[in-house]
Design a protein that fits this description.
The chain has 468 residues and is mostly beta strands. The protein is 4% helix and 50% strand.
Length: 468
């Protein structure tokens, strides 16, 4: 069964990675603090930082006057080996379909037989939170969060061969919030409203695991209101907001020049509508199996201007859930259906398909609709939470009848399994495996016909993370 995916060289990569994880597991003492991290609260509504995996019990926090200042982050090294060419490399989006690689000596080799070994630390994260030290009074309380990683652009230097390891900081989150009782207002750059969960992964921190493969996500400037309400032992959360209407679809609009800080004459076709994205979500959290279960559903609507008097809309309905099946087992995930969802990497990163007859102005615009989602099973192997395994799968399946030449990605499917071991309360090692199945479509007369080139690949990732 595994022979189509691995050859001898691929097995060597796997053995190297396994050796590294064994060394890391036994090189450090295995003392750890017991903790019970509530995965159902891993959402934009949470007041705590979101860590990949189980959060550390200790906090780096101090009181400055009337404010509490918290510093948090993840120092992360990823070592990944693959048995094919992957789009994204150290942050895989899909397996490259068909084709071959030409080497400097002129020889070629199929993509499916190319192997890469990558070391990277640029998915490390750090952030700050500032909030009042005393929140007991029934008045408005203000707080704020700033979070960065090092997945930004790379400075260009034609004489520097190590350019791939010089990465600039990048803003992930930057928002302030005002809260009084059960009512909250959030303003700034935060996670999208309708899809608050992500699969647990240390290999995909700069962008969540499953993005372009069924996991809608985004960090966007927004203004939203939240209202919580207690109903006995359960609680509800209503979120309503407006989000920056940015599509950044390379098929339709000119993207900012590399290295530029300012837009020239337009910020994008979504902004040209002078209307924001509208999003809302409603969720219920209730006690279940000695823990909490959360069920949520939400909607999104927006528009982009493609002509003086013509606009295309973007919409989605999404649901999410996080359910304890047993004291140490939790099942969580999300699903969606929608159209023109490239702002959230839906449609396998396709929003609108375009045909330009005879090289002239586009004559046909097809919004690419589809559906997708992901699910993840979390199993705590030991009561002290030092050993956790994850199994999951996700898929994004655009409608084939909406595709046109140049927009032929027809399906992207992902399966994964990982083992997280906490060496100490702060230090975690993780071994992750992911299998990527990518499909395209051929066309005849502008109509999708037979299956096109496919991409298949396996990636093994060893992560070492110090979280605080």
């Amino acid at each position: 069964m595994l022979k189509p995916y691995f050859n001898i060289r691929g097995r060597r990569i796997v053995l190297h990675v396994l050796a590294l994880v064994l060394i890391s597991l036994f090189a450090v003492s295995s003392q750890a603090w017991a903790q019970d991290y509530d995965y159902s609260d891993n959402s934009a509504a949470s007041a705590e930082p979101v860590y990949p995996g189980i959060a550390p019990q200790s906090k780096v926090e101090t009181t400055v006057g009337s404010q509490k200042l918290r510093f948090y982050g993840t120092f992360l090294l990823n070592i990944s080996g693959s048995d094919s060419v992957d789009v994204g490399q150290d942050l895989v989006l899909w397996a490259a379909p068909g084709g071959s690689v030409t080497f400097p000596d002129g020889t070629t080799k199929p993509n499916s037989k190319i192997h890469d070994l990558i070391f990277t630390a640029r998915q490390s994260v750090f952030g700050f939170q500032l909030k009042p030290a005393d929140t007991s009074t029934n008045t408005w309380h203000a707080s704020g969060t700033l979070e960065f990683d090092f997945f930004g652009g790379r400075p260009f230097d034609a004489n520097q061969p190590q350019g791939r390891v010089f990465n600039e900081p990048r803003l992930r989150l930057g928002y302030l919030q005002f809260q009084k009782g059960n009512f909250k207002i959030v303003a700034g750059q935060d996670r999208m409203i309708i899809s608050p969960l992500d699969p647990v992964s240390l290999s995909h921190v700069a962008a969540p695991l499953g993005s372009t493969a069924g996991n809608l996500w985004g960090w966007q400037p927004q203004l939203r209101a939240e209202l919580t309400h207690k109903i006995g032992s359960a609680s509800t959360l209503l979120q309503i907001g407006v989000v920056r209407p940015q599509f950044a679809d390379a098929r339709l609009e000119t993207l900012p020049t590399t290295g530029s800080a300012l837009d020239n004459t337009t910020s994008g076709l979504g902004e040209r509508t002078t209307l924001p994205f509208y999003q809302a979500r409603y969720s219920v959290t209730t006690p279940m199996t000695g823990s909490k279960a959360t069920f949520g559903a939400g909607g999104h609507y927006g528009r982009e201007r493609i002509g003086a008097d013509q606009e295309l809309d973007s919409w989605a309905f999404a649901f999410d859930f996080s359910v304890p099946l047993y004291s140490r087992v939790r099942f969580r995930g999300e699903g969606f259906v929608g159209s023109n969802l490239i702002p959230f990497q839906g449609g396998v990163l396709q929003g609108v398909a375009v045909i330009s007859p005879a090289g002239g102005a586009p004559g046909q615009f097809n919004k690419i609709g589809g559906a997708g989602g992901w699910g993840e099973l979390i199993v705590k192997l030991t009561s002290d939470n030092r050993n956790v395994i994850y199994f999951g799968g996700s898929t994004d399946d655009p409608k084939d009848q909406n595709l046109l030449p140049g927009s032929g990605r027809s399906k992207n499917t992902l399966a994964w399994a990982s083992y997280f071991h906490k060496l100490t309360d702060n230090l975690t090692t993780a071994l992750e495996w992911s299998n990527w199945q990518f499909r395209t479509r051929n066309f005849a007369g502008g109509v999708p016909t037979t299956n096109g080139a496919a991409g298949r690949g396996n990636v093994f990732n060893l992560a070492m993370a110090y979280q605080f």
